[in-house]
Specification:
alpha/beta; 11 helices; binds D-malate; 272 residues; 8-stranded mixed beta sheet
């Protein structure tokens, strides 16, 4: 599959551009890359134009030093849509850190959002302890590289059912984490530590929204995601059985079915 490259706001961005239809932007989690979305994006390309970037500092996209905030990522992605000539509202879909960025995209560019898809993510900001932990992670990854992150995160990323039934997925995620660029990981960790609390804004999200979570997600648990969905006026809530935090990679078939149903909802909202 051909990965494209473009310079966005001074940094080289790598991305896939698959299929035709309403634009659907897939935003990956931390510290992964566009590959986590591939099984779903490939299934969706008959119905949508799937734009699947590596965020700044991840995968094959260029890193910038210091800190990259969720607002920086959101503005990069708006710049990517501009560079691709996409002016019509798009579906903005993010997982975990990608969800923080999707929220921020809505906050800053809401006229460009046809629908919001929030997967395995959180609306709350970091507690001071979490923020401090992220600063420590940033220092450590710059000193010793990302391998320790794979050890720390992997058992929490995918559910126990996936661990047993699809052990190759754990390997694939390990490879994504271990090959991550330390500068990109550190900058995003610092950015996540500073992200805004979206909870007070949830009631203002009036576009069609889908909140999706793996039933075994221990990072953004189903109860928290359900509460998020209840706070967003037009949100649907979908729980994917036997999946953890990376539900779209663990069960791409069910996640694609939920996304296609949501697409119908967005299309009928557009017709009204
Ligand atoms: C992610 O999957 O993107 C991370 O778990 C997000 C986070 O560390 O808050």
């Amino acid at each position: 599959m051909k990965i494209n490259k473009l310079t966005i706001r001074g940094y080289q961005y790598a991305y896939l551009d698959l299929g035709q239809g309403i634009p659907w932007l897939f935003i990956h989690g931390f510290p992964l890359n566009h590959r986590m979305w591939l099984p779903v994006a490939e299934r969706m390309q008959g119905a949508v134009r799937a734009i699947v970037p590596d965020l700044r500092g991840f995968g094959q996209s260029e890193a910038s030093p210091g800190i990259v905030t969720m607002a920086d990522f959101a503005d990069d992605l708006a710049g990517l849509l501009d560079a691709l000539g996409i002016r019509q509202p798009a579906i903005i879909c993010g997982l975990s850190m990608g969800g923080y960025i999707a929220f921020e995209f809505w906050f800053r560019h809401r006229e460009r959002v046809a629908g919001l898809v929030l997967c395995d993510t959180r609306a709350a900001a970091d507690t001071p302890e979490m923020a401090q932990h992220r600063q420590a992670t940033a220092e450590r990854v710059l000193q010793e590289g990302p391998a320790f992150l794979a050890e720390a995160m992997l058992p929490r990323l995918i559910g126990p059912a996936t661990f047993h039934q699809q052990p190759e997925l754990a390997q694939q995620l390990r490879q994504q984490i271990e090959s991550a660029n330390p500068a990109g990981v550190a900058a995003a960790a610092r950015g996540m530590a500073q992200r805004r609390d979206m909870q007070p804004a949830l009631s203002q999200i009036t576009c069609p929204s889908l909140v999706l979570v793996g039933s075994q997600d221990v990072i953004s648990p189903p109860a928290e995601m359900r509460a998020m969905a209840e706070a967003i006026p037009k949100a649907r809530f979908v729980e994917i059985p036997d999946a953890g935090h990376i539900a779209p990679l663990e069960n791409p078939g069910l996640v694609t079915a939920a996304f296609l149903e949501f697409l119908d909802q967005v299309a009928s909202a557009g017709e009204k």
